[in-house]
Automatic annotation (TrEMBL):
Residues 1-68 are annotated as: Disordered. Residues 149-354 form the Peptidase S11 D-alanyl-D-alanine carboxypeptidase A N-terminal domain. The keyword Transmembrane applies. It comes from Winogradskya humida. Residues 52-68 have a biased composition (Low complexity). PANTHER family: D-ALANYL-D-ALANINE CARBOXYPEPTIDASE, D-ALANYL-D-ALANINE CARBOXYPEPTIDASE DACB. InterPro entries: Beta-lactam/transpept-like, Peptidase_S11, Peptidase_S11_N. Keywords: Cell shape, Cell wall biogenesis/degradation, Hydrolase, Membrane, Peptidoglycan synthesis, Signal, Transmembrane, Transmembrane helix. This is Peptidase S11 D-alanyl-D-alanine carboxypeptidase A N-terminal domain-containing protein. Pfam families: Peptidase_S11 (PF00768). Belongs to the peptidase S11 family. The chain crosses the membrane at residues 76-96. SUPFAM superfamilies: beta-lactamase/transpeptidase-like.
């Protein structure tokens, strides 16, 4: 029986009669026809090699990754972790920060307390002799000229006589006031003054004049005898009445005035233009006084019609007040006039004293000539002027640093004259956290406190909102 044979050993290399399969296009004898990593079908371990020179790795799924890609992914993971950590730390705090009320903005504005109307100083046609002063009620003194030493003022003294009577016995509306019975002493005083050529109104014993009649006789034809009669009627004697006159002067601040008779006939009754302007202001507060001195004429008992010696009434807006003339005093006039500027009715008060002339008509003609020139100049220079342009005066600043300029909504214009110092005040109101374009943040006031010009202060632009970062960190 035949024995079992040993396994046959296959010869290496191609065998005769056994076909060899080659890949299409492969050269005979090349390895292109066998699987990669095998030698004639025998598995061979093949180390990883970079493709095109780059290091590569094979994931279990067969995806090829680079080393640089792994580093980028690790960095992203770290950043995400940090972000998560920050948000975790802020947590509810971020929501609280974003919901907080914003702090109020601050408003600053710089403005002087007094500003002067710009322009060349006014050159007034002041008289070459005597003294003069002009002021505009509510605005101030326009100017003065001449000697400020006290001098005789003539019948201008009667303004104080009327002032004291109306203070002691006030009248309102059409009131005539109490009756004043003319006494024999009053008649005797009248007769004694005739030889001296004084201004007088005839009186008769037993005649009854009302207070208003007496004041009209005092202020229109300038009756010296009625000044004496009123003084005695009020105070019991002329001396007692003079005490009242001088006390009133002191109370008004007329430091350079001394009354020695109620009519002003005596040259020892002295004052200044400045003092008499002060008195005129006070006297015109009585509507009855202002009405009487504006009368061209009136009718009183015994003499009938009387005429006002103030020939300027009705011209240049003049409505008062009192003339006065003596040899020692010269020509004098305390005057008042109305002037309308920019829709505002102004009261001009002035005094021109001690004008030369050979007699009363010449003296009064000279003083009237001066006053007309002065009032014409006043009308030419007293106008509406721009005191403050609509330029930035400050700013609104938010807590996060945004700003908006603050300026008057329009130029601040006032009535006055070049060089006039005008009081200026500004008020502000606390802004909110931010402002809108044109928001009103205050006011500017200029002029007298009782009748100022008022202009709003406004923000130029809206302030931007704060950034998210600012809100999270403040």
């Amino acid at each position: 029986m035949a024995s079992a044979s040993a396994p046959a050993t296959l010869p290496s290399g191609p065998q005769p009669g056994v076909p060899v399969t080659q890949a299409p296009g492969a050269r005979p004898g090349s390895s292109a026809g066998r699987p990669v990593g095998t030698a004639y079908g025998t598995p061979v371990a093949t180390p990883n090699r970079p493709a095109s020179g780059a290091p590569v790795g094979t994931t279990p799924s067969g995806t090829v990754t680079t080393t640089a890609g792994k580093k980028s992914r690790r960095k992203l993971v770290v950043l995400l972790a940090v972000a998560v950590l920050v948000l975790g730390l802020l947590g509810g705090g971020a929501g609280f920060q974003l919901s907080k009320d914003l702090p109020a903005a601050t408003l600053t504005a710089a403005l002087a307390d007094t500003l002067k109307i710009p322009g060349k100083a006014v050159d007034m046609p002041w008289p070459s002799a005597g003294s003069a002063e002009i002021m505009i009620e509510g605005l101030g003194r326009l100017g003065r000229s001449g000697d400020t030493a006290p001098a005789a003022i003539g019948s201008v003294a009667k303004v104080m006589t009327a002032y004291v009577i109306l203070q002691e016995h006030p009248l309102e509306g059409d009131d005539q006031g109490p009756g004043i019975t003319v006494t024999a002493a009053d008649v005797a005083d009248y007769n004694a003054r005739i030889p001296m050529g004084q201004s007088l109104v005839k009186v008769t014993a037993g005649e009854v004049m009302t207070e208003r009649d007496a004041l009209e006789a005092l202020m229109l034809p300038s009756a010296n005898n009625v000044a004496h009669m009123l003084g005695v009627w009020d105070a019991g004697s002329e001396a007692a009445f003079l005490t009242k006159m001088n006390a009133a002067a002191d109370e008004l601040g007329m430091d350079d005035t001394d009354y020695t008779d109620p009519s002003g006939f005596l040259p020892s009754t002295t004052s200044t233009a400045a003092d008499q302007v002060i008195l005129a202001q006070a006297a015109l507060k009585s509507e009855v006084f202002a009405e009487i001195v504006a009368l061209p004429s009136a009718t009183i008992p015994v003499v009938g019609k009387i005429r006002n010696y103030n020939d300027l009434l009705g011209s240049n807006g003049v409505f008062g007040i009192k003339t006065g003339s003596t040899d020692e005093a010269g020509g004098n006039l305390v005057f008042s006039s109305h002037l309308t500027v920019a829709g505002k009715k102004l009261t001009v008060i002035g005094a021109v004293f001690n004008q030369p002339g050979a007699n009363t008509p010449e003296q009064l003609a000279q003083v009237n000539k001066v006053v007309r020139k002065l009032l014409a100049k006043v009308a030419a220079v007293v106008k509406e002027y721009t005191l403050l342009a609509a330029d930035p005066l400050g700013e609104v600043r938010t807590a996060w640093g945004a700003t908006s300029a603050v300026r008057p909504a329009e130029p601040v214009k006032v009535v006055g004259w070049p060089g006039l110092a005008v009081e200026v005040r500004h008020t502000t109101k606390a802004p909110g956290p931010e402002v809108e374009t044109g928001a009103v943040v205050g006011t500017v006031e200029a002029g007298p406190a009782d009748s100022p010009v008022r202009v709003e202060l406004r923000a130029d632009t809206a302030t931007p909102d704060p950034s998210l970062w600012w809100r999270l960190t403040h």
